[in-house]
Every structure is written in C-alpha cells, then in structure tokens.
Amino acid sequence: MINPKIDESWREVLFDEFQKPYFGSLKEFLTSEKQKHTVYPHGSNIFAAFDNTPFDNVKVVILGQDPYHGVNQAHGLAFSVNEGVPFPPSLQNIFKELRDDMGCDIPKSGNLTSWTKEGVFLLNTVLSVRASEANSHKNRGWEIFTDSVIRRLSEQKENLVFILWGNPAGTKASLIDEKKHLILKSPHPSPLSSYRGFFGSKPFSKTNEFLKSKAINPIKWCI
C-alpha cells in the first residue's frame, strides 16, 4: 500500500489512485532519482498544492506543467516561487495581466500561497523535476495521476473555474464537464506566447464574475 503524505480530504478522494501499479512505479522512480540527482521541489512540498487547498475548498484550478527546475524556486505550487526568488518570466507576465485586469499592484513576492488559501488550486501536471532539466520527469506516471485529479474535481464538484494556459493545459479540457464548470483557455503567459492572446484575456475578473453569478465568494487576487 502506498500512502503519501497528503491532506486528508484529498487522501479520501484519491485513495484508490495511490494503490494502482503505476503509482508504485512512480514512487520507485522518484526514490531512484533522489539517490542520483537533486530533485525539486523538496519531498515535503511535492503535494503542497493539495495540502494548501483541501478538496472541499477548491473553487479555481490553474494548471501548470512541471515545477521550476532552478535552485530554491519550486515549492509545490504551479507558477509560484519561494520568497525572495526573482520572478520567472511567466510569473512576471501573470502579474502584469493581474495588474491590468484587477488593478492590483505588482506583488513584491512571487509566492502565491495566499491564492491557495482563497481556494485556488495551483496544480502542475507533473509534480517533480530533476534540477536544471525541464520535463525530466515527464511520462513517468505523474500525468496519469493529475489527469485523475482533474477528472475527480470535475465529477465530484460543481461551478469550478479551470484556467488553462497554453496548448498542453488546453488539452485537459477534455477531462472537464463544461456543463458544470467554466473553462478559460488562452495562450501561455510565457514570453514566447503571451502577446498572442494571454495579455488582455482577463482570467481573474472572468473567474470572479462567474463565481459571483453562482453565489460563491470571489477570489481576492491582489497579493
């Protein structure tokens, strides 16, 4: 039996997932990787998105790809970095859109933990990475796990907002019931694509408009 340290509400929702053979293989892979390489984020932070936003509290899902692979950047929340770490380019652009959309000042910290406490589930599709090697833990089982997470959120909850930035995230729309939830798709905030429609997409205000229309408290996006 595989029993990762994860918030109790998520443990109940995902219990059967942790018993599946692929998850055992994933755990073996991670054990081997940690013996040979530096892996981010720290093991205690791999499930930080789940620990910070219990299942019952999720209102919004923002989907990232894999964790940042630089020193002291990743701490288990998609797009977020630890205190005192310079903003990666995508996060800089997220904060520019936040300013233009919601009138927020550009934050001094790139730590998005305050969003998670508002009900924003910051999920990467892959939850670990080898230092300095982007996508090095791709196709090892994490995607099976996070696809299941997205499906269960869609099936078991109502009136969520799924914010899907970029083509890889956009493909996950097939896992979501559009009759029950709002899906917001746009180009990725990366400098390579942000000017193709990410800027001006107003994901933050659109999210709040939808939540309010369903009598759900909106997100306090300003950090």
Structure commentary:
- With 223 residues, the protein is of the alpha/beta class.
- The chain is 36% helix and 11% strand.
- The chain contains 8 helices and 6 strands; from the N terminus they run H-H-E-H-E-H-H-E-E-H-E-H-E-H.
- Strands 3-2-5-6 form a 4-stranded parallel beta sheet. A two-stranded antiparallel sheet has the order 1-4.
- Determine the mean pLDDT: 95
- Strand percentage lies at 5-15%
Series of H and E elements: HHEHEHHEEHEHEH
The strand order across the widest sheet is 3-2-5-6
Number of helices: 8
Instruction: Give the distance, in angstroms, between the N- and C-terminal Cα atoms.
Output: 40 Å
- Judging from the principal axes of the Cα atoms, what is the shape? globular
Q: What is the structural class?
A: alpha/beta
Radius of gyration: 17 Å
What summary fits the major beta sheet? Answer: 4 strands, parallel
Q: State the helicity in percent bands.
A: 25-40%
Low-pLDDT ranges:
none
- Say how many strands there are: 6
Sequence-ordered SSE layout with sheet pairings:
Blueprint: H1 8-18, H2 21-36, E1 39-40, H3 48-52, E2 60-64, H4 89-102, H5 113-117, E3 120-124, E4 129-130, H6 142-156, E5 161-165, H7 167-170, E6 182-186, H8 203-213
Parallel strand pairs: 2-3, 2-5, 5-6
Antiparallel strand pairs: 1-4
At a glance:
This protein is an alpha/beta fold.
Task: Looking at this protein, list some descriptive labels.
223 residues, alpha/beta, 11% strand, globular, 6 strands
